[in-house]
Structure formats: structure tokens, C-alpha cells
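Notebook, student rotation project (T.W.).
Task set for the rotation: take a protein with a known small-molecule partner, predict the structure of the complex, and write up what can be learned from the model alone. Partner molecule chosen: calcium ion. Sequence and SMILES entered below by T.W., checked by me.
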Amino acid sequence: MIHQPRARTALPLIVMAASAASLGSQAIAQGAGMNATRLGHEVVVSDLGTPWDMAFLPDGTLFFTEQCEGMSVRLPSGEVTGLLGMGDAEGYATSAEDLFCDGQAGMNGVAVDPDFDENRRVYVYSVSDMSSPPTNRVLRFTVAEDFSDVSERTDIVEDIPYKDAATDHPFGDTGAHNGGRIRFGPEGFLFVTTGDNHNAELPQSPDRLGGKVLRIDTDGEAAPDNGAPEGFDPRIFTYGHRNVQGITFHPEDGTPIITEHGPWHSDEITVLEPGGNGGWDPRPGISGRPDDCPDDYCGYMPNQMEGMNRYERAAFMPMTDFEVYPDAMPPIWENNNYFPGRGQSLRAAPPVPSPFRPPA
Ligand SMILES: [Ca+2]
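Predicted structure of the complex:
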């Protein structure tokens, strides 16, 4: 297998600021005559590859990932330091030869430890070829006091599936449906979102970690009271998902809320329940679907690429199949069966939990 770094596309990291005050020429959304929140933006880092995630310290220190490059940190002074490089990426204090990017996979989520002041720990989600076949992993590092380097790599999760072979599907390349967001909940456990890899068996599988939301401690052990059904891997918090790439927490009660991509229809926002089933099951022969879906995955059926009324698609291959799983977690929002297009689909993990304060 050859893992080629992607061309850098010079995307900037842009920090949004919502304010009731005037933001002058940088205001990008204003409601004339309305009591509308105004949004402004400021470019804080530029000339990036594919920036994928950000994590903040209370003073505005920003850790960020680039999907095919690695993890870096931007200090409140504006200084940017490459900490962890993937493969042969240059300009990083530490390199990890086993990390690579491919399709939607690469270095995805980043999170800082709730006790960062004491333990200096940071976490990233990346695909790695240290295993055969390759897997997605959650890596823990210790950040140097002066933010110049990372050390003490510990792989706290090693067995999140990765799509290692192309299949006969729209966007069927390797690395597809890779999940990858990691976020600490308010009680200090780490939530990890994964994807189904175009593998119909994964979402409802009790012991494989694709198509799931995991809830673990900082050593990768299962958090208590995850509530998954008897016989499930105890790290599983919810299952039956397609490709979860956004998670945030209710500001008052801490309940996790996810965003999930749909197949041309039915992107969803779902409030998670411990042990809950998201109701996605693209296996052949389920709920009247054919026995001969391409590569045994009915997730794009019927009729794969051809245009079709979105309601027919949604009825045939629902993101939440209440017929088969009447107790599935209902989405609190779905986009009226539309799919907004690749690269623009629902992925947000709003809002940024810590205040970003640009340098004075
Ligand atoms: Ca669902």
C-alpha cells in the first residue's frame, strides 16, 4: 500500500466570534432590523493542508490537526509549532512513521485533557499502519512545558476499523466513513466517534468499534455505566451509526448530542442515550432491502448514483429504522431528507467550549 500525502490546499483556520456589538467590515451575517446575532471572523493560522479539528486551552492556546500533516499548536502570541508529524511530513518536533492519510482518513480529532494544567496531556485520532490491516487509533501524548514537543506516546485505543479496500459504492474509496471526532464530556470521560467504513456488519456489531460512539477513560478503558447491551464491548456508549463526525454536550445537563452524515438524505442530530441504538443497519436483506447490494452494503440503495426522490431513498434505507428497531434513538433534527453535498454536510461540533482570545 502506498500512502501519498495530499497536496496542501492552503486553507486557513478561521475563528468565528459571535457578538452583539458591531464587528465592522468583518461581520459576515447581519440581520437588518432584526435582533440577530452577528458573526465575525479572523484568520489566525494560514497555509494549512486540510485542517480537521481544534482544541483550546483556557488562555486561547490552540491545538489543531491537519489531516495529512499532523498536529500543531498555536500559542496566544501567534507562534505556531509543529508537534507531531505523520509519516515523512517535515517541520515537526516528533514524527510518527505509522500515521498516514487516505481518503477521509488521516489525522482527525484532537482533544486536551480536562486536567491539562497538571498532566500536560493531549489526544489525537489517526489511522495507523502499525497494525495489519491498518486501524484508527486514539493516541495520548504529553506536551512539553514550553509547547516545543510531545512525548510519551501511548495508544489508548488501537482497534477502531478503517476501510482498507475500495468498494463498488459512490465515494467508495479506501478511508471512507472514518468518524474521528474526540471530545471530553463534562464528567471527564472521552467520547470517540467512529464510522461504518461501508461495512454493513459494523453498525450493529456488538464487538467491532465501527459505527459507534465510544466513552472511555484517559487510559482507554471503558467508562462506567456506558449501558451497552449484554455482550457488547464495554467501551461502546451508542451503536447503529453511519458516520458520526460531530459531538457536543448540553450546557446544563451535559447530555451528549451528535451530528451524523446521511446518504444523500437525512443528515441527523441525535441526543444520545447510554446504550442507545442509532438505528442504522445497511445489511442486505434487512427490512425488505435486497440480498445482493453492491459489496454487501445497502447504504446507498436503491439505485446507487442515479437521481431519485429523496423521500423514496429515505423510506428505503432510513438513517433511523424504526420498523426494525422501534426503540432506536430518534433524531431531534434531520434535514428534510436532503443531503447538502459532499464537503458541506453536517459536521459541526458547536460551540467551541473555551473562549478564544486572540493576542492583544
Ligand atoms: Ca439514526
